[in-house]
Amino acid sequence: MIRRFVLLSIALLVAGIVYSRYFGVCGEAVYVQIGPSEYCVPREAAEYEISFNPFSLVPGLDESPEGTQALILFSRFEYKEAVPEYEIERNINNEPMREDLILISYLTDEEVRRYKYHGAEEKYFQDLWFGEGQWSNRRLEKFEENGWYRAYWLDEGGSWQVIKDMPSRESKNYLEAGFSIAFCHFTVLDRKTCKTNYLDESRKILIDLDLDEGNLPFREEIGVHILKKLDSWAYVSSKT
Questions:
Q1: Cβ-based neighbour number of residue 223 at 10 Å
Q2: What domain of life does the UniProt record list for this protein's source (predicted)?
């Protein structure tokens, strides 16, 4: 009997916390906290955030810090409006994908440094630059648009790293901020899909992006658009 009472109390506590967070201060919108900033995100854009790690709402049930990450839906059609050169990604039926599910993270100072320099001290990038270790059979290819390069781990080229500079034993440019652009691979329909990110260093915000390779030159503009959209949902008592 006591056990049932305790379980019921916990369930009511969780329900109360969830209700307060999602149906309280923001009315019909969803309350979302990312670091020191608070937002009232439209429910249709926050449907994944509602179910994203719900136990983080209850102290002791999750080890991750509260309010440091959020999953929010954004419109690829709005990307196109903000960045006309951007080409909307397509699904396996070759149809334009309307929505883009974005993970937004608030970083510690150490994480900001690591993402800014892409973990450049790791042997992975040193080997890539000098063509050693797992990169001893690397193949380099000029990126068509803007002077970047593709570095293929294996000659057949199923996956590759997009880097800013041509590797050379006379320099150590792999240690510079922004050297690593993205990691890419082929998917269905021979789509070249890439994992990249946008870092707002001043706000310590990281935005994870999945883009077609041809859209990589616009990743910063897309990141800026996402932050502007997020700011338009700022909660009135936000500290920012």
A1: 21
A2: Bacteria
Rounded Cα gap, residues 212 and 121, in angstroms: 28
**Vertex 203: Cα angle to 163 and 82 (nearest 5):** 65
Task: Please give the span between the terminal C-alpha atoms of the chain, in angstroms, as a whole number.
Answer: 48
Model confidence pLDDT, tens digit, residues 158-178: 899 999 999 988 888 889 988
pTM of the full structure: 0.82
Where exactly are the structural domains of the chain?
Answer: 2-115+204-231, 119-176
| Tokens of residue 188, six digits | 């269905």
Q: Which residue has the tokens 């926050």?
A: 46
**DSSP SS3 for 189:** helix
3-state secondary structure of 7: helix
Nearest to 162 by CA among 147, 175, 178, 148: 148
- How many CB atoms within 10 Å of residue 236? 7
